[in-house]
Amino acid sequence: MDSQKIITVKFGGTSLADANAFLTVKKIIEADPARRYVVPSAPGKRSADDIKVTDMLYHCYMLADEGEDFSEEFVKIEERYNGIIRDLGLSLDLSEKFEEIRNAFKYHAGSDYAASRGEYLSGIVLAKLIGYDFIDAAKVIKFYADGTFDSEKTNIILSDRLVRHERAVIPGFYGAMPNGTIKTFSRGGSDITGSIVARASASALYENWTDVSGFLMTDPRIVDSPCVIDKITYRELRELSYMGATVLHEDSIFPVRFAGIPINVRNTKDINAAGTMIVPSARDFDKEKVITGIAGKKGFSVINIEKDRMNAEVGFGRKVLEIIENEGITFEHLPSGIDTMSVVLASELSPKQRRAIIRAIKAECEPDSVEIEDGLALVAVVGRGMVSSKGTAARVFKAVADANINVRMIDQGSSEISIILGISEKDFDKTLKAIYSEFVK
Ligand code: ASP
Predict the structure, then answer these.
(1) Which of 32, 67, 174, 385 is the least buried, fewest Cβ under 10 Å from its Cβ?
(2) Residue 13: CB within 6 Å of ligand 1?
(3) pLDDT tens for each residue of 240-272
(4) What is the pTM of this model?
């Protein structure tokens, strides 16, 4: 082993749902001495109808905050942890911690504080189980007074702290504001803590252990058992995530991307599976498949504008975009032709906005026609291999045409790592299936 190599490992809620899951986590950590920093989530669901500890805490705190009796709910939370401790055979008594938390609930410590206790307690149990130091995230993950994350201060404090701990558990999801008040990231935020710890410890790798074997090439609800993506670049991931492919918290990408650290998404239920490797950059690609993934989203609207000699008119595009801006709307895509311009919007327009936009475009741009079409779905075909493989676009369009799907818009960004198709929402599933079977035989 490279003695310098450090791996930061993060485990999600289902990977810490009960004692058996904790034992799997221990086994994974002990299998590689480079796994020196560990970020746990709160215990998640043990079965489909179970409740995550985080949700139990939110609910319990809501009762406390409304002045209701929350003791019964609180006992259930204690039991989750005591059950895990008992089944693991640990000599650990959390009763003082429970007492402290119960009191803080009575004194309205805030719902962020309440939710954060899930990770806090899970971190204490895990540190005891694997014999690592415990570092309270409130001491090392810092937020500004307005509640936004203070990345630079955190990086200084945390890296300074980590060099003093050979091995440590740092609970995910929360940190503290300058006055000490606990603040959490948004839901699923332990992914972010893992990424922050990886950056501050100058890890060679950030392993994110969850309950799926990485990113799938497309939506498994539409395509039966799609392949796992073995390698994807940050940019490709960004394109797919924008279209709704989610495994990681969106904000978890930034700290590691900034530091050029790869993320390996792994599955605690299939520990030998290689998972998906997310890398800063890559040139190589699977020649068989060419593309990396296909994702899509419904619910877009498009403003179609036509005007003879639009290309020769200075300021035409600016005027259109200004009108949209004045309505407080952002646009998603802007495909244009010589005499046509389309503005794709993600947000549902109110009838009032609709009328205002049409009226303003007619008055200020004097188009030959302008109309708003709803019910558009976008499908992104993403792949770093597309730039160097001739005929990829042709294959995409042929597959879609053969499936009798009418393409209403095409947008190939300048990056050439994605082709975006606009189709009718009713053709969404068919499009995903047609493109997938064209590239994955
Ligand atoms: N426990 C938190 C949640 O359920 C954070 C996380 O699991 O990442 O959202």
Answers:
(1) 67
(2) yes
(3) 887 777 778 888 888 999 899 999 999 999 999
(4) 0.86
